[in-house]
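In response to the reviewer comment on reproducibility (Comment 2.3), we provide here a single inverse folding case reported in full, input and output, so that an independent group could reproduce the run without further information from us. The structure tokens appear first.
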């Protein structure tokens, strides 16, 4: 392999490794947000029934909060929606990594071929992590947040209706 090509592949591989490190941070951030929202919603779920609002407003707010909690819990689980069964069985629902057995097979190959195969494997991992884990988890957190906002709007409208109606 051309030395210039080897340098480019090395550079690109380093970039992909940095991106995969960022993906670990992204998953952790998603989990922190989901956990924090769950804690806040748990407190709110205990307070909502005691509010002096019409039952319809309270029930609607509780349904929105409960639905939101389901999405946040789902974001914390290891199996995101739409993940292929084969990927799920291999990764366990966590970020994809290189199989050590596959690495051992590379020991007899020329170094330029090893570098190219590692680059391709890293590229595939970054793509899988993004499409099968990070984006679906982010969608779940976003949906939970929208439902949480909906619950607050319902409570606000209920309070406004109570004030307007006396």
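Designed residues, in position order:
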């Amino acid at each position: 392999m051309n030395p210039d090509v080897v340098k480019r592949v090395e550079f690109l591989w380093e970039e992909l490794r940095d991106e995969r490190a960022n993906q670990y941070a992204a998953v952790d951030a998603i989990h922190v947000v989901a956990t924090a929202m769950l804690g806040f919603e748990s407190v709110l779920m205990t307070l909502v029934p005691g509010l002096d609002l019409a039952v319809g407003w309270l029930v609607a707010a509780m349904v929105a909060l409960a639905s939101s909690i389901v999405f946040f819990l789902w974001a914390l689980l290891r199996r995101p929606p739409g993940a292929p069964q084969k990927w799920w069985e291999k990764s366990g629902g966590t970020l994809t990594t290189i199989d050590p057995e596959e690495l051992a097979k590379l020991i007899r190959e020329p170094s330029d071929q090893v570098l190219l195969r590692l680059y391709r494997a890293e590229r595939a991992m970054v793509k899988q992590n993004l499409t099968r884990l990070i984006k679906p988890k982010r969608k779940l957190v976003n949906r939970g947040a929208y439902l949480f906002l909906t619950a607050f709007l319902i409570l606000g409208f209920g309070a406004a209706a109570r004030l307007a109606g006396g």
